[in-house]
Design goal:
This protein is of the alpha/beta class. The protein has 5 helices and 8 strands, in the order E-E-E-E-H-E-H-E-H-H-E-E-H. The termini are far apart. The mean pLDDT is about 95. The structure holds iron/sulfur cluster (SF4).
Length: about 170
Amino acid sequence: MKKGFVRLAMPDIQEDSIVDGEGIRSVIWFQGCSHHCKECHNPETWDFDGGVEVSIDDVKKQIDELEFQAGVTFSGGDPMSQIEALVELAKYVKEKGMNVWCYTGFIYEDLEKMGEKNPLYKEVFNYIDVLVDGPFVLDLKSFEVAFRGSSNQRLIDIPKTLEKGKVITLEKYK
Ligand code: SF4
């Protein structure tokens, strides 16, 4: 990806979602996912050459225009697959005082290991409030678990996890 650009599944931020995290949220849909979960709801977001290239400045302008949103959710696709863009945008949202959720097909422990090679995978956790981690597992599909597709996926409270040095999930959605 060219510096200063991000590949998104759709060029515009989707506003007013109530299913992609707590409250009324805006969702930025990243393009590209290597996990290829069976019966993924968004297989059109797998192709790393699909979607549309958008300048990060353009996405920031859209973020500036958001109103009446509890926060921003990064979803996809896998936002962690474009880590440079994710860090820049998550930092931007966080510095505006908004709450950040991020979905990923990676598990938290693997992202920690990836952070040993590429520090951006560590840095990104400074700007995420809740990480919804892990692939969608068809055998564990559940309608009982809030904001997730399957029960293996966790709603990780990132600030608490960093503070305690172990994975802490959101109490109210256990
Ligand atoms: S990680 Fe998410 S987007 Fe990627 S294949 Fe799995 S369910 Fe689909």
